[in-house]
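Review form for a predicted model. The reviewer records the input and the model, then writes brief findings.
Reviewer: anonymous (R2)
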Amino acid sequence: MERPDKKLAVEKISDIFQNAASVFVTDYKGLNVEQISDLRNQCRENFVYYLVVKNTLARIAAKNAGYEEMVQYLKGPSAIAYSYDDPSAPARVVTNFAKKAEKPTIRFSLFEGNLYGPEKVAEIAALPTKDELYAKLLGSLNSPISGFVGTLNGLLRNLLVLCRL
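Model under review:
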C-alpha cells in the first residue's frame, strides 16, 4: 500500500527530472548540517534548488520520467541540485562550494535532457550565465553602431580642424 507522502515525493522528483533545465545528482556524504545549510544558501542566491532525496523514490521517479539509465547511479546518500532558469548554475554553485569543502561530489548530471557523467561537469560549470550571454550579444549588436558613430565623430573633428586653419 502506497503512502500519500511518498507518492507526492515521487511526483515532485519526477517533475524535476522532466521540467528542470538541469539536474545534478550529488553525494553529500561527509557534509555536516552547517555546510549543507551554507550550500543551500548559496544555491538560493543563484536561483538553484538543493534537495536531499531517498534513492528508492528517486529511482521510481527516474523511471516515471523516462530516464531509466539514471537508476544505476542512484546509490548512497543522494541530493539533487537543479534549476529551471539557468542550466549551468547548479554546476557552478556545487563546483565552487566543493572547491572549499571538498564535498559534495557530483555523480552525474541531466543537462537539458541529456545524461552526462562527472567528467562533463567542469565544462558545464565554465559556461557563462544567461545574463553574461545577453551582455555579449548586446555588445556585439552595439559594436557596429558605436564604430559608425566614432567614425562620423572623427570626420567632423577633422573637418573642424581644417576650418580653423
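Findings: The chain has a mean pLDDT of 84.
Further findings: The helical segments are 4-19, 33-45, 55-65, 89-101, 121-125, 130-164.
Recommendation: see findings above.
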